[in-house]
Amino acid sequence: MKQKSITLDIKGIPYRRNKSGWNKPGPLPWISAIKKQTQGLHLDTRACLLRATFMLPPGQRPSRLAVWPNLDNLLKPLLNALKKTLFCKAKGQNPCVIYLNATKVMVNSDEEAGTRIELLPIPKGLMSEHHLTV
Q1: DSSP state of 16
Q2: Does pTM surpass 0.90?
Q3: Rounded to an integer, what distance in angstroms lies between the CA atom of residue 13 and that of residue 29?
Q4: Whole-number Å distance between alpha carbons of 73 and 69
Q5: CB-based contacts of 95: which residues, under 8 Å, 6+ apart?
Q6: Which one, 46, 71, 87, 91, has the greatest CB density within 10 A?
């Protein structure tokens, strides 16, 4: 059976992994929002492409930083939360992501904030042994 792609808009304020100087309450509400909004969805594949677009509201940037948080710090809570939902049946869980594309954009309000995720399964015939390590 062919696995379908999944596109989902997760509402909430994307939060980077815990670091000092960032607005409270920290990443836990964001991680909870991801789990709640992806509950019951499963990606049953050995390899996939993950595209994530983080939509960040103006109030989330610490005043001491001129730029938004690094993408790797935004991705960590997202991937950890997806490991409990979307990736829970995928072989290797997070390692099933063999291609990752991430962007961040500014939005005007907290209501517009969130993350759009797109997961595209990679058919077994398109993978080589060099791409898959699980």
Answers
A1: P
A2: no
A3: 9
A4: 7
A5: 133, 134
A6: 87
